[in-house]
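Work Package 4 report. The design task specified in the project plan requires that, given a folded chain encoded as structure tokens, an amino acid be chosen for each position. We show below one input record used in the internal validation round.
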């Protein structure tokens, strides 16, 4: 009996040891490493940023905040395929459309966007920042280039994330409200809309303005939308900083941090599944835009989403989207720029054979529930062919042929191995 026990123990530990060796061999082929904690937090700016992030006063009709669509209880997203903008009521899957307009893309999770690594924002990267030279490229020309027309606004912005934060305020669907419904919606241009928001804050929240004058050591008249962006950026950067997943701890040397099944899943991630080809490095992304033949799904009546092409107008950028880092995806469903996949199983099935998925996938009908308008799966052969042939990575054209066990292991790794326990209070495991 004792012999058997010793035998069993040594067998299991040797299995563990073997798999760790396999993993370190696979990892040595890639630029990898744990994500280090973001440092340099400015507590006062962070606190003010949190207040602004949660405050509906920044929306034209005072009925929606950033938090509505990037909620801590919804993994910094909103649990919906497509966000419901101002005029909707409620949070997460409980959100009801009412008079709200449905936004054409899925609200992305916003983990770890505060690092310099992240120089492009939005699925199509339409806000970008080049730190060397402090140069922005955004939909507002006044902020762009080496000598922007409004250097007073760009001065406080220190990251792409800070600049990104002032754009939802301009979107009529997201926060600004429809023309005729409030003074910000009626502003003639972007700069005027931002100015009117600052005027509103001066009138109704002098405490915010005063805090800005203290933090930046400036006069009341000098406070502008750039400061608001910087504060919200600071809040998002540090509030949604996630560097302590079991995977990160494993890479830091704690070999017990992942279970045997998670390690088996990691092997699939690094090997047969080829996930590492795009979700690599400390950020688990490839810092670029990629077409992975996601099935077309849209709000009925909307045009076809062309992805990165909409910014660059380069043919080769059609159907490319920013490759997201994938920490905490256990709590951020549904997935992709159009929220077409409801589960991680569906995501993994997709990657197992992208051609079959692109041509045959049928989205779960539950995704429709919060909306009055229909969501539509567009499955046209000609369009699918364009998307499929637009892929660049040769291996995507071949099925992965993962076994059911490999898919299960991969799912467990992605679901639990990449989950920072700080953010998962609502899950049962
Ligand atoms: C109505 C829902 C909604 C509201 C309100 C909203 N967002 Fe978003 N957010 C989205 C959607 C949808 C996208 C993706 C849009 C796209 O890529 O075209 C997005 C994108 C982002 C991104 C880019 C993430 C990335 O990885 O590129 C950040 C950061 C962000 N929002 C922060 C904010 C902040 C800050 C506010 C408040 C000022 C805010 N959002 C308000 C829905 C919303
Ligand atoms: C060729 C590059 C590439 C490969 C290989 C790849 N991904 Fe992705 N991944 C992306 C891109 C790009 C997106 C966003 C696509 C979109 O929205 O259209 C994405 C999105 C995701 C998402 C959704 C994240 C979110 O916030 O919606 C998950 C989860 C994911 N990938 C997991 C995986 C897994 C698991 C594998 C391996 C089986 C894998 N990926 C392989 C590029 C890749």
């Amino acid at each position: 009996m004792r012999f058997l026990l010793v035998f069993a123990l040594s067998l299991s530990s040797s299995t563990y040891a073997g798999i760790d060796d396999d993993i370190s061999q696979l990892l040595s082929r890639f630029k990898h490493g744990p994500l280090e904690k973001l440092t340099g937090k400015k507590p006062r700016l962070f606190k003010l940023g949190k207040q602004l992030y949660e405050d509906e006063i920044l929306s034209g009709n005072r009925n929606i905040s950033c938090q509505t669509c990037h909620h801590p209880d919804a993994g910094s997203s909103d649990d919906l395929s497509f966000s419901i903008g101002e005029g909707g009521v409620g949070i997460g899957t409980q959100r009801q459309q009412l008079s709200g307009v449905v936004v054409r893309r899925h609200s992305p999770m916003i983990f770890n966007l505060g690092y310099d690594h992240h120089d492009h924002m939005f699925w199509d990267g339409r806000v970008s920042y080049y730190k060397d030279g402090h140069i922005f490229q955004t939909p507002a020309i006044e902020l762009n280039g080496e000598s922007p027309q409004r250097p007073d606004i760009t001065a406080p912005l220190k990251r792409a994330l800070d600049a990104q934060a002032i754009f939802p305020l301009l979107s009529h669907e997201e926060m600004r409200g429809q023309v005729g419904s409030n003074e910000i919606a009626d502003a003639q241009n972007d700069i005027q809309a931002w100015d009117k928001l600052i005027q509103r804050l001066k009138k109704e929240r002098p405490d915010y303005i005063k805090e800005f004058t203290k933090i930046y050591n400036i006069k009341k008249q000098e406070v502008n939308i750039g400061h608001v962006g910087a504060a919200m950026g600071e809040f998002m950067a540090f509030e949604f900083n996630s560097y302590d997943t079991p995977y990160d701890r494993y890479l830091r040397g704690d070999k017990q941090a992942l279970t045997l099944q998670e390690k088996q899943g990691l092997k699939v991630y690094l090997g047969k599944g080829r996930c590492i080809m795009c979700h690599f490095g400390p950020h688990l992304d490839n810092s670029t835009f990629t077409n992975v033949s996601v099935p077309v799904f849209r709000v009925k009546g909307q045009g076809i989403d062309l992805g990165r092409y909409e910014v660059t107008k380069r043919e080769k950028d059609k159907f490319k989207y920013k490759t997201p880092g994938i920490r905490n995806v256990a709590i951020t469903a549904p997935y992709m720029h159009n929220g077409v996949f409801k589960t991680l199983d569906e995501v993994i099935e997709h990657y197992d054979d992208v051609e079959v998925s692109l041509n045959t996938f049928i989205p779960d009908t539950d995704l429709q529930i919060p909306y009055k308008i229909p969501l539509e799966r567009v499955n046209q052969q000609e369009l699918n062919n364009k998307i499929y042939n637009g892929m660049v990575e040769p291996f995507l054209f071949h099925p992965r042929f993962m076994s059911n066990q490999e898919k299960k292991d991969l799912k467990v790794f992605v679901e639990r191995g990449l989950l920072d326990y700080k953010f998962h209070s609502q899950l049962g495991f």
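The radius of gyration is 23 Å. Validation will be extended to a larger panel in the next phase.
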